[in-house]
Amino acid sequence: MTTPLTTAAATEAAEPAGGAPVTTPAATTPRRRKRLPHTPLNPRPSIPLTLVTGLALLYTLLPLAWLVINSTKDQKGLLDSFGLWFADDVNLWDNITRTLTYDDGVFVRWLLNTLLYVAAGAGGATVLAVLGGYALAKFNFPGRKAVFAVVLGAVAVPGTALAVPTFLMFSKMGLTNTPWAVIIPSLISPFGLYLMWVFAAEAIPAELLEAARVDGSGELRTFFTIALPLLMPGTVTVLLFSMVATWNNYFLPLIMIKDPDWYPLTLGLSAWNAQAQTAGGEAVFDLIITGSLLTIVPIVVIFLLLQRFWQSGLAAGSVKE
Amino acid sequence: MRTHTTRRLLGALAVASALALTATACGSDAGDGDGGNAPKDVKSALEKGGKVTVWAWEPTLKKVAEDFEKKYPNVDVELVNAGTGDKQYTALQNAIAAGSGAPDVAQVEYYALGQFAIAKSVEDLSPYGAEKFGKTFTPGPWNAVTQDKAVYALPMDSGPMAFFYNKKVFDKHRIEVPTTWDDYVAAARALHKADPKIFITNDTGDAGATTSLIWQAGGRPYKADGTDVTVDFGDAGTKKYTATWQKLLDEKLVAPVSSWSDAWYKGLADGSLATLSIGAWMPANLTSGVAAASGDWRVAPLPQWTKGDKASAENGGSSLAVPKAAKNKELAYAFTEFATTGAGATTRVSAGAFPATRADLESKAFLDAPFPYFGGQKANQVFAESARNVGTDWSYLPYQVYANSVFNDTVGKAYVSSTELTDGLKAWQDASVKYGKDQGFSVSD
Lengths: 321, 445
Fold this sequence. Notes:
The complex is a heterodimer of chains A (321) and B (445).
Chain A: H1 2-18, H2 25-31, H3 47-70, H4 75-80, H5 92-138, H6 144-156, H7 159-172, H8 180-186, H9 190-203, H10 206-214, H11 219-248, H12 251-256, H13 265-275, H14 285-314
Chain B: H1 2-16, H2 18-33, H3 39-48, E1 50-55, H4 61-71, E2 75-80, H5 86-98, E3 105-109, H6 110-118, H7 139-145, E4 146-147, E5 150-151, E6 154-155, E7 161-166, H8 167-172, H9 181-194, E8 201-202, H10 207-216, E9 222-225, E10 228-231, H11 236-250, E11 254-255, H12 262-270, E12 275-279, H13 282-289, E13 297-300, E14 318-321, H14 329-340, H15 342-350, H16 358-362, H17 364-367, H18 379-388, H19 400-405, H20 407-410, H21 413-416, H22 421-438, E15 442-444
């Protein structure tokens, strides 16, 4: 019973592979596609451009590859094996366990601190940017131009330049060495506000809001039910930007926080690194590298999850419909 | 005249940095009340209890803090790692300048203590009973924390220098372990010739290492008496050092690897850096950071500048000081004393710290402890011998932290260009003199 079936399947599979004359046009189309003429949208493959892109790819991925490879080595392997290849034994799991438990599990504490700073700081910054951006884009009120000028000016001032004055101010208020010293400055994101403003101006047609008002919807209801969904791509973009900025923030916590119990991961890893540089200190290069890998994993995951929102947001408003 | 100089100094310091401003102000306030502190205040403070914040990076203090809390249940010790070395001193100065956030106890290395003492930003501990420890500590560290009658900190550890060498490498190339610095240069040539990958040691210009070797050679470039400071890198001891080290630099016999970098640890592990002349605290770093080379290394006395000598010097080592801005000074002193003397010191020594107390340094258990890392060698005997041979009349500048920070801009040139080491040291001297004068010291060279 089964034999004829098998043969039929075999001949069917063998037919295209054998290059036998094709009988049905349906089989040809996917194979012999007609070449499209080269246009600006379908450019000729360029060897130099491919090389440059390849180099850029290598430049981006090599450190990541290095990190992954070296987090599988123990201290000994790190010092006596080639940097871009594995040592004899793979200690990844052991390294992760030791990173998480070293010094009474202080790494976990730093991870939770970082999550707190990101959730409160970056989350808060996004909320403020969305509210502010929407208001600036859709409401006319006196002083709007002044706010515009201040925000543009604020974008130009690097956070590093503000760090020391901020420290002195927080010190006067007795807030240094507390999580507030990291969270409060992170709440302010002039760039995020500016982005949301531009985005809101383009993404929400004024006619839509007017229609809502005519239909008797209050301002709050209009914002939550009509504006907010339309603002989603912009919101995610701002959220991503401020999350990455807060996650990677080093300088602000460095000057604000002295108590290791409130360190974010960036400071904690740097403290581990400094350990190797003191008399009687313990060199834990293996844990620093594994810790760095663990530190970037959440950021990579967040990027992958939120990417599609972000992509659709980038081009918004670029074409007049 | 004396008052005049002091006032000028204080004024200049105040202008120069916010630190000095607050510190001197605090100093004069606290100065009036200091006379009333008697040792008994410490006792009642311990009974009353409270919180002591300690800024220190030294890992063995953790156990000491736990023991202290156990012994005095009302006291809560908060150990904070506020960075190491320079980073912590900057943080400490910022906290003092900002007027809040300064710790009750701070770890300060001997070379940096002078700067905090002269600015009066650390408490003189003698009214609390610290002066009675004159015979408890070894002379080198005690000399480093005292000035006239004042005790500005209590020594936590010390770093008598020793010569660490990779026996495997020396044996393989059949080279004798050097006992004089001339032999050392010869060994450097022989090793590098036998295998061009091997260097006798690394050096990219390290102020601490250079001053320590000048110290061993009998050079005394710094003299400090209150605000009168002398900087002179032209003495005979310094010349001995430069003559030898210039040969190593000219013939490129020292590896261009910075100490404490991962490349350094790698070099120590794979045998390409064959020796280290460094403080006796190094075994802890070797054991944890260079585990791969366990059994390869041995310890010997430092090579000598004159054959048959037994000279040594200190390298590194730190003390615990009580900042003037400390909230509960009696409690802070109690912790400082606990951590640096008696049971606290013994706890730290058994956790791997190198003692500054005579009792621990002379104890049989300490001297006879075998080091599996050094193939079972009783290395502490070498270190203890070195501690006895440290020249005690050494002093650092009262602003050594600054001086060390410009070492690479001046002496460092000898490592990367054709500048002679002597000229580099002269440039360092000039920079140190200029800064000192700007700060209101009377400096001569």
